[in-house]
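User: For a teaching handout, I'd like to show students what a predicted protein-ligand complex looks like in C-alpha cell form. I'll give you the sequence and the SMILES for magnesium ion. Please answer with just the structure.
Assistant: Understood, here is the input followed by the structure.
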Amino acid sequence: MNLVTREALLSFHRTRTLSVLSVTTIAFALFVTGLFGLVALNLRSALRQVAERVQVVAFVKRETPSQQISAAMSDIAVFPEVLDVQYVSETQALERAQRELTEFQEVYKGLEVNPLPPSIELTLKPAFRDGKHAAVVAERLHGFEFVDEVKYGQDWVQRLDSLRDIAGLIGLAIGFAFALVSIVIIGVTIRMTVLQRAREIEIMRLVGATDWFIRGPFLLEGAIKGLLGGAVAVILCAAVFGAFRAQRMGLGVGLRFFGVGEALVLLVFGVLLGFGGSLVSVGRHLRRV
Amino acid sequence: MIRFTKVSKQYTTGTDAALEDVSFHIGRAEFAFLTGHSGAGKTTLLKLMYAAERPTSGDVRVSGFATATLGRDEVPRLRRRLGIVFQDFRLLEDRTAAENVAFALEVTGARADVIPARVARVLDQVGLAMKADAFPRELSGGEQQRVAIARALVNEPPVLLADEPTGNLDERATRGVFQLLCDINAAGTVVVMATHDLDLVRHAGKRTLEMRDGRMVFDSADDATESW
Ligand SMILES: Nc1ncnc2c1ncn2[C@@H]1O[C@H](COP(=O)(O)OP(=O)(O)O)[C@@H](O)[C@H]1O
Ligand SMILES: [Mg+2]
C-alpha cells in the first residue's frame, strides 16, 4: 500500500468521530439535494405527461359538408405546431360521452337528438404545449368559417405554465442554497480534521515534505469521504423513495428513481465536494504555517 | 556552512527589532552555543536558518542555500539538509519511537525498503535501540529528546539546529543529550545549540555566541582569551 493511501486510511481511523461527522455531513447535504432532484425529476415528467393532454378542440357547425372539413383538416395538419388532427363526428362524440361520463349514461341513453356537435381535435408537438402557442392555434382555427367555437382549457394550461416556471425557480434556488450550505459545512469539518492533524503537518514541513506531499493524504481522504457520503445519500434517497412509493401505491406507480447516470452525478458531486473542501482547508492551513 | 551578514529582523513595524545587524560565520564541523537571556533573539536566529522566518534585511546562507530569499517550494530541499530539534520534542504521540523516526523518511520520499534499516541504525546511534517500539508517553524526557534527535539525523543532514533541547530536562538527562550532540558533532555534523543553561556552556569549552536584545554581543571565536 502506498504511503498516501496508508496515511489517509490511518487518519480516517485516528479521527474516527470527525470522519463519521464529515461523511454524515456530506451524505446529508447530498441526500437533501438528491431528494430535491428526485422531486424535480418526477415533477418534470409529471408535467410532461399532463402537457400531453393539452388539446385544442374546434367545434364544427352542424351540416358542414364533409369535403370542406377534410380539406380544412389537411390544411390544419401542416400547421407547424400540430402533431395530430382528428375528426370526431356527432355519433363518435356521443359514444365517447356515454363511455367516459358514466354518471350521465342514463341521461344520454334517453336522448332523442344528439346534443353534441362534431369537432376537430388537435394535439400539439411537445415544444408547443403551452398557453401561448395553444392560443395562437385557436386563433387560427377561428378563421375557418365553419368553426363555431374553440376550446383548449385556457385556465389549466395557463396554470401549467406558471407551475413550470415556479418549479424551475424553486429548484434552482433550493439546489443553490444546499450546495452552498454543504460546501461551508464540509469546509468546517475538514478544517477540524486539518487542525486535529496540525502537529503532523508541522512536522512534515519541518523535515522537508513538500506541500503537495502534505496535501496528498488530505485530498485522498476528502475524496473518499465525499464518495462515501455520496453513496450514503443515494441509499437514503432510494430508501425514502421506496417508502414513499409503497405508501402511496397507485399514486406512486408513475414515479421514477435516478438512473445510473444521475446516481453517478451525485457520487461525483460528493467526491468533488470532499476533494475541493480538503484542497481549500489544507491550502489555507499551509499558507499560515 | 552558516553565514549571517548584517541580518535584521523586525516582526511587526513599530516594535523593537528581534535581531539587529547580526553577522557571524559557523564553519564546517563546528559546534556553537547560542546563548542569551529569554527574548534575546535566539529562536529568531534559528528560524531564519531553517527559513521559518525571513530577515527584514541582510543575507543568510545555510549549507549553500540563500534562505533569506528562498522560494516556498524550495524550503523542503533546505529542510532535508537540516536536522531541527526543540525544547518540547514535537513527537507524534500516537506513533512509536521507530514510527516517529520513520515518518521523517517516509514524508520526504525515501524508498520503503531502506527505511527500517536506517531507522534502526539511527535509533542505535542515539542509544534507544531497545525502545524502538515504545510510545512517547512511555519514555522519559531525555529519551523523548533522543527520539527527536534521531528523527532529525535520519536524513543525514550536514547541520543540526537545536533550540533549547535541554530546557525541559533534568541535569542528568541534560548531560546525556549534550554528550549525544557532541558525538554527532564529532562525526562531522555542524551543531548549533541555543540554550540559557550557562553552567553547561561554561564547562563545555565550545564556541559561544551570545545575544542580547537582538544583537550579537559576544563571539568566543573573536576573542578566545576573554573570560566572562
Ligand atoms: N512571531 C513573533 N511575532 C512577534 N514578535 C516575536 C515573534 N517571535 C519572537 N518575537 C519577539 O522577538 C524577540 C526575540 O524572541 P526570541 O527569538 O524568541 O528570543 P529567545 O529565543 O532568545 O527567547 C522577543 O522580543 C519576542 O517577543
Ligand atoms: Mg527561544
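For the handout, you might add this sentence: The first helix of chain B runs from residue 42 to 49.
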